[in-house]
Give the backbone structure.
Amino acid sequence: MRLSRYFLPILKEAPSDAQIVSHQLMLRAGMIKQEAAGIYAWLPLGLRVLRKIENIVREEQVKAGAVELLMPTLQLADLWRESGRYDAYGPEMLRITDRHERELLYGPTNEEMVTDIFRGFVKSYKSLPLNLFHIQWKFRDERRPRFGVMRGREFLMKDAYSFDIDEASARIAYKRMFAAYLNTFARLGLKAVPMRADTGPIGGDLSHEFIVLAETGESEVFCDRKLVEMAPPGHDLSVEQLEGVFTERTALYAATEEMHDAAQFETQTAEGDRLSARGIEVGHIFYFGTKYSAAMKANVQGPNGKDAPVHMGSYGVGVSRLLGAIIEASHDAGGIIWPDAVAPFDVVVINLRASDEAVSAACEEAVAKLEAAGKDVLYDDTDERPGGKFATADLIGVPWQLTIGPKGLAEGVVELKRRATGEKQSLSLDAALELLTK
Amino acid sequence: MRLSRYFLPILKEAPSDAQIVSHQLMLRAGMIKQEAAGIYAWLPLGLRVLRKIENIVREEQVKAGAVELLMPTLQLADLWRESGRYDAYGPEMLRITDRHERELLYGPTNEEMVTDIFRGFVKSYKSLPLNLFHIQWKFRDERRPRFGVMRGREFLMKDAYSFDIDEASARIAYKRMFAAYLNTFARLGLKAVPMRADTGPIGGDLSHEFIVLAETGESEVFCDRKLVEMAPPGHDLSVEQLEGVFTERTALYAATEEMHDAAQFETQTAEGDRLSARGIEVGHIFYFGTKYSAAMKANVQGPNGKDAPVHMGSYGVGVSRLLGAIIEASHDAGGIIWPDAVAPFDVVVINLRASDEAVSAACEEAVAKLEAAGKDVLYDDTDERPGGKFATADLIGVPWQLTIGPKGLAEGVVELKRRATGEKQSLSLDAALELLTK
């Protein structure tokens, strides 16, 4: 992508109402533009990262056996009356009346609708287990939206819903998603710790939040340091392996501020392993049994020939929120430092003198070769001054910067900089391309 | 994908309120489920086709130089007051009030918001030309939603917006999108004819609809037969080539019922070339100059140093509607016949006796090899009877059916059927796989 033909509106300064660093950096890097309180347009750079995160989340759901569908943003109020949540949900639910005076709402979550889909088609235990997920825009009418995409009103969420014949198999489905989340966040370059959580308005008796540790996190968390460093469990796990993954982690202390028990923390965790830190919630999983299926008559016939309500769990990831969480966890004074897996571009090629034919030819050769190797390349072909180009490249956080200028080219060298470490090396263009595409 | 682990709720009969064949077939094939009038959930099979269409539309936009962003579904009413359309739009606009009594709406289109984004960042002709597009859910509160996804209320639309310094360059941008649409619909396997159109509430003086010909189309259309058979123009066209593509097509008669002039049709078109047919609108493009930019003060500084409103056009494709249009244009008594490019799976492997180890081993080998070759494979590993499996495979319209059973396997043959023609051949598994992956 040539920067001269792209739409990357960099701001010199963030608006003063952006209070946290991820919000400031997303505005400065031209990733988002606010269109109303808590409602954002995703500018091209922001959308690229959003899609990369979404795709990783999707791939890990599919690897865990979940099947993707897509529910609409608007729902019938009557569906929520069946579960009893229409009145209970309160002012965070955006309630809408259409031209025929029918009551709709902008879905804040989808337990009711997915239960309706399930009961419309599935009648027998033979169709189970089943896990259906979608990645769709949601709306929660926060009283005080703030912190950019971290607490927006219109936000992108992945929500999965498991259906099982009994509690025992539902708990296995829960643990499968627990493991899938560990894999997902690791691929996103995050250290996310599962913490036992309150079930809140979703209901149920088993729930974990996944918390990313970041100095600027929204809340205080307490956990065993060993949890932070554990490797992700990987794929295609047997039920025994899933139990092992779950037990190994939940045996260690981990709690958010509201669930924290200082005495238990001290008993359970050696002093050197006690970590208290700030955290950001990026995922939340629930097992809630027959709460919705019983209310909404989502019954399946069991092997005994009798109908009974299906056992369910739900599993959410805040996809748009993850951009903020990743930036909070990975930035410096110069700007964003994207983990490789979610970076909007793999490399930015910086042309130090766009008016110089030899420099431009070398840049275009580099871009063509990198793209042929499957890399996403941003080519800064503008005539801005070098200092501005370097500042932009640092700000938008592309993992590699390949700089080509007339002086170096005369000496047969280009400069390659790794954004995360700041490490620079001078080398031939061929050597740089080999390093970037190996 | 193993059918036993998938979610494909086939219906024996379509609900009686489904009036047109695409709606009936999408319901029967388990592609959609209605959640409210004109509001559908996309079940896994439907979502796969929706994403394939969306990706083709996206790729052709990018090839034509448009840059993708993503605007939110909800918009501020005040933005539409600036253009004067808030009151003018009427009851089709879904108007919403949030908890703080702020007036929002569910975007039916995005001229206002994209103009707001443009004016927030772009100040000089040096940043032009620019074409921004997004693919996002829209809502139009149709008085009488019907025909499934063909006239839904919540629907997926690709909308692009071009920005140019003057009318001459804006008309080039228009022709670039005109050519991109021809390429897009051809890739989707459709014969779509551009027809001069009324500009309606969008405004402007230049507009074309793209109409798919189908016997069951919603309206009558009239055109020169030569238009239907013209090859798509291809990519990377010069301005001269774009002018040629546009002139060559617009010189031939083509009109929807409301724009039809029978006398002119006869004068302009030889009798043998006069085609009157039924059609479905799948795209609509507009040049409307400074209608929105003047009202909303989206000015850019020209080379002369003076500010003037930017010249704009907008370009829509009904992405979710295209599923209906494709089915209307391509089906038979047995079900859907997907064009290869948009099929939910490339091939369905039908196991005629899932209890037979040799048959299952051959099927799994076929699935593994096809997937290794990059094919999307549905594997019918269920224990349904063969007749039901064939009927399902025909109904869901996968282009190739590879059937493996005990009798054929003993003779060293499998059966390969092409859905579109019904042509069947018996051949060795290796020969079948070679044919499918070549």
User: Anything to note?
Assistant: DSSP finds 15 helices and 23 strands in chain A. Residues 293 and 309 of chain A are 5 Å apart (CA to CA).
